[in-house]
């Protein structure tokens, strides 16, 4: 029986943090044993916003793939590759571009949101507007039947499904419609209480040493209304509680912290120190694995080469079907 095929990718942003690990990679670890997985580095997607300064992309790819391998992504189980290695993505992107109405792209909520949110870069480009078309090509070129997405991202896949339907309607049933594989993504907040992100400078990186982690956690914002030790706090608005007690504490420990906070019988330092060793312990094996991978620079190249070969085989097969369906062969 076919295991089903999963496709997922990440933009190369360099070293990864706890948000990537618990939000995405922990899920990939499960998926790689349940499905045939294709995990790709979305380096062309990185260019939709970083086209003017692509220098960092090469090193970012390497760092990111090392992190993937360090957390346990198994390149024998999953094909790990760079999007730009597989030129067929670009061919399919061009063909899908022919059939995608402009209005579908212009009404895309992410497009509008990012245009207003990302400042300092001119994003009024064809590539940025068209990125959902490239994203669709990335998915359907592997005839992936499942794409893992968090609940709030489910609408993003809808456009890909629409483009797929349109292709199948015009040229025959070449592609399965990609289904969402809804995943529970824990809320991972950074040291300043905002979503954990490298660009906010609030992240706990997978490469951080215990002393660095400790420093960041002890400085992390808590319930801002709890100004003094004797003030009762509210764990429900405390970014530390929301993230770390929920990730690492069992129910009795969470209940204890909740009560201690609400009655001001524990201070924030004590509360944080009760979780800190578990966080450090969680990340320690990742750092050890990274050291071994960094010691042999050929590992990443070999992984991408083999993953690229497997991805290319699948993509090439699909493109034969596409060309035949469109009368291009
Ligand atoms: S005691 Fe714990 S839960 Fe309460 S505000 Fe401080 S860090 Fe947050």
The shape, in one word, is globular
Beta-strand percentage? 5-15%
Associated small molecules: iron/sulfur cluster
Count the beta strands.
5
> How many structurally independent domains?
2
CATH third-tier fold name of the largest domain:
Rossmann fold
Structural class: mainly alpha
Written description of the protein model:
The protein has 329 residues and is mostly helical. The chain has two domains: 5-187 and 297-326, HUPs (Rossmann fold, 3-Layer(aba) Sandwich), CATH 3.40.50.620; 208-286, Tyrosyl-Transfer RNA Synthetase (Orthogonal Bundle). The chain has helices spanning 18-34, 43-50, 57-71, 88-99, 102-106, 109-117, 126-129, 131-140, 154-171, 210-219, 239-248, 251-262, 268-273, 276-294, 298-326, and strands at 5-10, 36-41, 78-82, 146-150, 179-183. Strands 1-2-3 form a three-stranded parallel sheet. Strands 4-5 form a two-stranded parallel ribbon. Helix 4 (88-99) runs parallel beside helix 15 (298-326), helix 8 (131-140) packs across helix 9 (154-171) and helix 10 packs antiparallel against helix 14 (276-294). The longest helix has 29 residues, at 298-326. The mean pLDDT is 93. The structure holds iron/sulfur cluster. Iron/sulfur cluster (SF4) binds at residues 222-223, 226, 233, 235, 238, 240-241, 257, 261, 266, 268, 271-272.
């Amino acid at each position: 029986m076919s295991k089903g095929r999963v496709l997922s990718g990440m933009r190369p942003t360099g070293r990864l943090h706890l948000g990537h690990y618990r939000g995405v990679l922990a899920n990939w670890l499960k998926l790689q044993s349940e499905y045939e997985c294709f995990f790709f580095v979305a380096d062309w997607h990185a260019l939709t916003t970083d086209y003017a300064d692509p220098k960092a992309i090469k090193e970012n790819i390497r760092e990111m793939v090392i992190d993937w391998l360090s957390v346990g992504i198994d390149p024998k189980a999953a094909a790990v590759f760079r999007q730009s290695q597989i030129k067929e993505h670009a061919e399919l992107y061009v063909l899908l571009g022919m059939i995608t109405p402009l209005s579908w792209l212009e009404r895309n909520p992410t497009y509008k949101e990012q245009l207003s949110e990302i400042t300092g870069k001119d994003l009024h480009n064809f590539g940025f507007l068209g990125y959902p078309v490239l994203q669709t090509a990335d998915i359907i070129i592997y005839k992936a039947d499942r794409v893992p997405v968090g609940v709030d991202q489910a609408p993003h896949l809808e456009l890909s499904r629409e483009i797929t339907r349109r292709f199948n309607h015009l040229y025959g049933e070449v592609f399965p419609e990609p289904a969402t594989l809804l995943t529970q993504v824990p809320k991972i907040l950074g040291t300043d209480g905002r979503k954990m992100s490298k660009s906010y400078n609030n992240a706990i990186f997978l490469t951080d040493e215990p002393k660095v982690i400790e420093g960041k956690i002890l400085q992390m914002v808590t319930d801002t209304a709890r100004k003094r030790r004797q003030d009762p706090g509210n764990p429900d608005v405390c970014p530390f509680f929301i993230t770390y007690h929920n990730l690492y504490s069992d129910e009795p420990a969470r209940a204890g912290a909740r009560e201690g906070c609400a009655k001001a019988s524990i201070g924030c330092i004590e509360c944080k120190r009760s979780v800190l060793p578990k966080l450090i312990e969680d990340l320690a094996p990742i750092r050890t694995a990274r050291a071994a991978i960094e010691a042999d620079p050929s590992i990443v190249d070999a992984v991408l080469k083999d993953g690229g070969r497997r991805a290319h085989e699948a993509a090439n097969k699909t493109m034969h079907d596409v060309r035949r369906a469109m009368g291009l062969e």
